[in-house]
Amino acid sequence: MDHLRPALAQLRGCRVLVIGDVMLDEYLRGTVTRISPEAPVPVVEVRSYDWRLGGAANAAANIQALGGVTTLVGVVGKDEAAAIVADRLAQHGVASAVIVDPDRPTSKKTRIVAQQQQIVRVDHEQRHPIAGAVAQGVRHAIDQAIRGAQACVLSDYAKGVVTAEIARYTIDAARAAGIPVIVDPKQRSFAVYRGATVITPNLHELEVAAQGVPPFEVARAATSVLAEIAGAALLVTRSADGMTLFRPGRDPFHVAAMAKEVFDVTGAGDTVVATIALALGARVAIEQAVELASLAAAISVSKRGTSTVGTAELAAAIDAVPG
After folding, report:
1. Contacts for 51 with CB less than 8 Å, ≥ 6 apart
2. pLDDT bucket at 56, cuts 50 / 70 / 90
3. Of all residues in the chain, what percent carry a pLDDT higher than 70?
4. Residue 270 annotated in active site
5. pLDDT digits (tens, 9 = 90+) for 88-122
6. Parallel, antiparallel, or unpaired: how do β-strands 107-114 and 181-184 relate?
7. Strands 151-155 and 15-20, bridge-based pairing
């Protein structure tokens, strides 16, 4: 992995625009010593709590942690969760171009954890597509923020920000600016992302996008989807089987999984898309970008909860790979 050291150095200072579903991840941590007398459920005595950036905000935070410079475009409500998101974005150094919609709550996922085991997750959100003045505000923010950007991320969590219209607007703007677009997808049809540079589905997302191609097999499904996305590459993340890059007219490029221990996969996709976007924005070869993303994902899943991966951690991981 010695060849990745120069590539890692190239990431510093690369400017990336992230557009998508901004979320707040809330963790309530405690212990369970009894069952409730009211119902057969555990009683969690909360000992601590913390908040972390989720969704598109986590992708932006990962870009900053890896030495990039990020602007985040998304939508939040006018509520306490939005204030916490703003505070955390500032702590991570992310420039916020987030639009406030007072009629929509900030997407928040509350995870209750006891003895390192997640007991339940509670979601606070509305997922209807943005429209009207809010959508216009997002388009205006994209117009302003794309100036000077070297790469663009569409972080789609199906919460209503990355509509078909916003996806098309972003991809067209990025292509006009001559910068790569990396998509973390949730739409059932990837045709929505036609013209993007790289789309990064996991196995489930690929299977949904390739419906009508039974039985499911990764290479066959990828070939089917490639025909719909106008030259975009597919980087399929495959959990314990690593990740595989599929491109039209090219042999697949596969990188084995590098995680030694997996504690929590939450947010690992954000880390992957952040690393790929930074690398391609810095003009790193796509094969090296995939190798860097695999290492970054291995670090991410070794941590508990939504997290970022820093430059020093990635450099240490490169040094630790045998050979």
Report:
1. 24, 25, 26, 27, 84, 88
2. very high
3. 97
4. yes
5. 999 999 999 999 999 999 999 999 999 888 999 99
6. unpaired
7. parallel
What six digits make up the tokens of 27? 């963790």
Collapsed DSSP state (helix, strand, coil) of residue 172: helix
Give me 140's structure tokens.
């205006």
Tokens encoding 23: 């979320």
Other residues' Cβ atoms within 10 Å of the Cβ of residue 62: 30
Residues 87, 156, 270, 319: which is the catalytic one?
270
Task: Give φ, ψ of 9 to 5 degrees.
Answer: -65, -30
pLDDT tens digit string along 65-80? 999 999 999 999 999 9
CA separation (Å) from 6 to 103, 144, 265, 289?
A: 47, 31, 28, 12
pLDDT tens for each residue of 282-307: 999 999 999 999 999 999 988 887 88
Q: E-assigned strands of 36-132?
A: 42-55, 69-73, 75-76, 95-96, 99-100, 107-114, 117-124
3-state secondary structure of 294: helix
CB 50 within 8 A of CB 27: yes
Give CA–CA dist 288/207, Å, rounded. Answer: 26
- Specify the length of the chain in residues: 323
